[in-house]
Structures are given as C-alpha cells and as structure tokens.
TrEMBL record:
Gene Ontology MF, one: cysteine-type deubiquitinase activity
Alphabetical list of InterPro entries matching this protein: OTU_dom, Papain-like_cys_pep_sf, Znf-C2H2_OTU1-like_C, Znf_C2H2_type
Organism from which the protein derives: Tinamus guttatus
Described purpose of this protein according to its UniProt entry: Hydrolase that can remove conjugated ubiquitin from proteins and participates in endoplasmic reticulum-associated degradation (ERAD) for misfolded lumenal proteins. May act by triming the ubiquitin chain on the associated substrate to facilitate their threading through the VCP/p97 pore. Cleaves both polyubiquitin and di-ubiquitin.
Enzyme Commission code: 3.4.19.12
Protein name as annotated: Ubiquitin thioesterase OTU
Locations listed in the record: Cytoplasm
Length: 236
C-alpha cells in the first residue's frame, strides 16, 4: 500500500517525411544552389568592351587596367596586316586606325571583337538587348571555347554563370557545344529589353566633349568625328 507505479511510455518513432515533401525540399535546395547566367557590370569608361573581353577570357579575373594593353594589341595586329585591315574594312587608313584605337576615349565595336576572337581563339558571342539577337564572332572558325558579352547599344558587360551567394568562382568560358548558355543569354536580353534596358543608337543624344556640339544617334556622331577628328562623346 502507498507504492507508486511509474509507467514510462515508449517514445513514438519519428515519422519519415512523405516522398512528395522530401522531393519538394530537395528541388528547392537544388534551385537555390543552381548556377545562373548573370551580367557582371563593368565601368562605363569608353573601354567597357576591352574590360569585358579581358574578364571573360581570363576566367572571371577583373583587371581595370587592361584596356591600354588590349588597345595596343589590336593596333599591332592591324598594323601587321594592312592588306586584310585596309581602309575599306576599317573606315579609315590602317595608320589612322592604329592611332585612333590606342586613344582611351575611343569606343570598341564589331571590328575589335572580331580581332580579339581570332587572337584568343574563341567564339565571342555578343547578346544585343535591343534586338534580342546574338552575334557570334568566330562562329565558323572551329573554336572549342565560347565567351559571352551583353550589349545595350553603347555599353558592353561580360556574362558569367555563377551560384548566387556563393564563394565558388564564376564560369565565364563555355564549350561551343553548350547551346543552353545561348538560350539563357537570350532570356537575359529579352528581360532587359522588356525593362527597356537598352539604348537606341539611332535616337540617343550625345554631346561632343571637345567642341560641345549636340548630336543625335551614332550616325551623326560618326559623321562629326569624320569631319572634325573629335572622337570623345558623352551621352546626354
């Protein structure tokens, strides 16, 4: 009498998560860790093309001082082959072009991308956010490597595939057999176009920073440069 009986209940075993819940959790984690293609913004300093190309071909290494070296490289290549790089191709004499491209205020474009594609032996894809089109320089050269830039009408940025919020280095060099990255680049361009993140080169307003003359569009800027020799323009 007076004894107390203590009964201990067996703890109920933990119920395994349902397969559907586990699958959703794994899918969510995989999405968070999946690498995405993104723009890596570089300064708008008249040398964005050279900075962007350097960044992607060097595997995601940013070198803000690379532009003079790349300009000099292009000038040397052009000067060494005056037959291929003649006035009809360059829009100016070979010698004039070589002097012009070395100037820090000179913008790079399709000619320079083509030269750099050959030098680095890789396909350089330029994704245009206004037209949602990809121009593939070196496409028929049989290169195995591909790098990507995004272009809004006046400014170039490099594209990289990276895991968000991760210390894992980004990927900037892709196989030319990787068509998925091209589709992802077009999605980025289309998103930028819908947000109107582009510059209409036929309508945007410029000012000549030498004589302060106002100009409209790329064609007027080119004509002004041809007439005056002024090549330093700023967007208004």
């Amino acid at each position: 009498a007076g004894d107390t009986l203590i009964v201990e209940e067996e703890p109920s075993p933990a119920q395994p998560a349902s397969p559907a819940l586990a699958k959703r959790a794994m899918s969510s984690a995989a999405r968070e860790a999946a690498p995405v293609l993104a723009r890596r913004v570089v300064p708008a300093d008249n040398s964005c093309l050279f900075t962007s190309v350097s960044y992607v071909v060097e595997g995601g290494v940013y070198d803000p001082a690379c532009a003079p070296e790349m300009r000099s490289l292009i000038a040397q290549i052009v000067a060494s082959d005056p037959e291929s790089y003649c006035e009809a191709v360059l829009g100016k004499t070979n010698r004039e072009y070589c002097e012009w491209i070395r100037k820090e205020e000179t913008w790079g474009g399709a000619i320079e991308v083509s030269i750099l594609s050959k030098f680095y032996q890789c396909e350089i894809c330029v994704v245009d956010t206004q037209t949602v089109r990809i121009d593939r320089f070196g496409e028929d050269a049989g290169y195995t490597k591909r790098v990507l830039l995004i272009y809004d009408g006046i400014h170039y940025d490099p594209l990289e595939r990276k895991i968000p919020d991760s210390d894992v280095p980004p990927q900037t060099i892709f196989s030319t057999a990787d068509d998925i990255v091209l589709a992802q680049a077009l999605e980025l361009a289309d998103d930028a176009r819908r947000k109107r993140q582009f510059t209409d080169v036929n309508r945007f307003t410029l000012r000549c920073m030498v004589c302060q003359k106002g100009l409209t569009g790329q064609a007027e800027a080119r004509e002004h440069a041809k007439e005056t020799g002024h090549t330093n323009f700023g967007e208004v």
